[in-house]
Amino acid sequence: MSIVKIKDKTFKTSITEAEIKQRIKELAARINKDMEGKNPLFLGVLNGAFVFAADLMREITIPCEISFVKLASYQGVTSTGKVKEVLGINEDLTDRHVIIVEDIVDTGRTMKQIVESLGTRRTASVHVCTLFVKPDKMEEPLDIEYAAFSIPNDFIVGYGLDYDQAGRNLPEIYTLYEE
């Protein structure tokens, strides 16, 4: 077990880089099969999903495109409960198969807002792909077709996820650790 200190908090390794990479390969294989012949548009949610989106895209073998949207709802280690769109979607999504790529779905509020926003753009289909889901914290009913990990309601950092903008560069997932 590795311990890291980020700002005023201590974290311990909970998911290794090898485990993450393996799950991403498995997700990509499912997406490649499900989306064959559909040229999906992957829509990465910044900032947290950029590492996951990059690794996922390297495993996708079907024709596809990628774009990004930026939303914010976190401050420190807790959600503010308010989602504000920072950077919107510029692509024409008419008749497109869209796969939202998110780092983590916990309450589901952010994902619900994105799905509802896409629903007004005449998409052929909308799918959710997330690295992590916290089922015990979920407040919104969502169909999450592609989830690499189902995790407890712990605060995590690494692999693109941050604590107050720090720790995104860590190659593994670390859980908040109270000594």
Strand arrangement within the widest β-sheet reads 5-4-3-6-7-8
Q: Classify the oligomer.
A: single chain
Number of strands: 10
Q: Residue-averaged pLDDT, rounded?
A: 91
Give the count of helical stretches: 3
Distance between the ends: 14 Å
Largest sheet: 6 strands, mixed
* Element order: H for helix, E for strand: EEHEHEEEHEEEE
Radius of gyration, in Å, reads 16 Å
Q: Which descriptor suits the 3D outline?
A: globular
Counting helices, strands and paired strands, the structural category is alpha/beta
Tell me the β content.
35-45%
Which labels suit this protein?
179 residues; alpha/beta; 6-stranded mixed sheet; 4-stranded antiparallel sheet
Protein model, in words:
It is a single chain. Helix 1 (17-34) crosses helix 2 (50-59). This protein has helices at 17-34, 50-59, 109-119, and strands spanning 3-6, 9-15, 41-46, 65-75, 78-87, 97-105, 125-133, 146-150, 156-157, 173-176. It has three helices and ten strands, in the order E-E-H-E-H-E-E-E-H-E-E-E-E. It is globular. Helices cover 22% and strands 37% of the residues. The protein is an alpha/beta fold. The strands form two sheets. The protein has a six-stranded mixed beta sheet, with helices on both faces. Strands 1-2-10-9 form a four-stranded antiparallel beta sheet.
